Amino acid sequence: MSDPVQIEEHGAVLVIAINRPRQRNAVNRAVSLAIAAALDRLDANPELRVGVLTGRDGSFCSGMDLKAFVDGERPELEGRGFGGLTEKSPAKPLIAAVEGFALAGGCELALACDLIVAAQDAWFGLPEVSRGLVAGSGGLIRLPRRIPPAIALEYALTGERLAAPLAHQWGMVNRLTPSGGALAEALRLAAQIAANAPLSVAMTKRIIAQSADWPMEGIWDRQRPLAESVIGSEDALEGAKAFAEKRPPVWRGK
After folding, report:
1. What SS3 class is residue 103?
2. CA distances to 50, 171, 181 from 92, in Å
3. Is position 108 annotated as part of the catalytic site?
4. Catalytic hit among 78, 128, 228, 238
5. What are phi and psi of 77, to 5 degrees?
6. pLDDT above 70 covers what percent of the chain?
7. How far apart are CA 104 and CA 66, in angstroms?
């Protein structure tokens, strides 16, 4: 049998592909465990700078494997959530490359990624209300932070699907591609990110993610030690030297 999740290294980019096309890449516990292991690999390997999450055979992910759910299996992992991702983001940037459908838990996986690249004919949606469920793996929390809250509420309450071009207009999708081009464009975006200093990239992600909940009073005191930890690094000095010497920097992640 084929692995439920396929892992590939493209230089500094780790591609994590859900590989259950007959189930429209629905997530069972084996998929969650495999994604979690891949994300640990991404963070542990200093040669890897960016992750890309995608699905095989023209579909991103249709959500939870309902047949497995009926049989008593749950895809959530303790401390990590659905797909081994929704409750614990990797320290390094993660891009969703979406073709076809990203529905229910699949939409929540995409929203748990830092950036989304989607094909023009892709669809997103949280149809849990039509199945007697609740989008409890981050969809109800993250969607109103990606698009206007009232629009997010409408889609969450109706269960209607959101077309990728409209999601792009609302700012949820970063880049649109022709059908079949999401992974290639995600790899191009990942390469742009991977070319930058790894400590700077990781800290930039951390500050943007955490500062959303910081009160304005004391916000600079919170950011200062985080920024200074990078400014005082060897890579910061290398970046300045490379700029002065008009050469590409050689990052060491130190």
Report:
1. strand
2. 6, 21, 23
3. yes
4. 128
5. -110, 140
6. 100
7. 11
Which run of H or of E encompasses 13?
strand 13-18
pLDDT at 71: 81
CA neighbor of 89 nearest in space, from 118, 107, 110? 110
Q: What is the DSSP letter of 57?
A: T
| Interval 48-103: pLDDT, tens | 999 999 999 999 999 999 888 888 888 999 999 999 999 999 999 999 999 999 99
pLDDT tens-place string over residues 160-204: 999 999 999 999 999 999 999 999 999 999 999 999 999 999 999
Of these residues, 9, 108, 185, 228, which one is catalytic?
108
Separation CA 13–CA 187 (nearest Å): 7
Q: What is the CATH number of domain 5-194?
A: 3.90.226.10
Determine which helix (DSSP H) or strand (DSSP E) holds 63, and give its type and residue range: none
Q: Is 217 among the residues known to form the active site?
A: no
The Cα–Cα gap between 35 and 29 comes to: 10
- Joined together, the tokens standing for residue 106 give 């699949």
Identify whether the C-beta of residue 115 lies closer than 8 Å to the C-beta of residue 174: yes
Domain boundaries, the chain: 5-194, 198-244
Whole-angstrom Cα distance, residue 200 to residue 188?
19
Query: Which class for 204: exposed (0-12), middle (13-18), buried (19 or more C-beta within 10 A)?
Result: middle
Beta strands in 36-193 (DSSP E): 50-55, 76-77, 81-82, 94-98, 101-103, 115-119, 123-125, 161-163, 175-177
What is the rounded average pLDDT of the residues 242-246? 92
Q: How many CB atoms lie within 10 A of CB 43?
A: 14
Return phi, psi of residue 124, to 5°: -120, 160
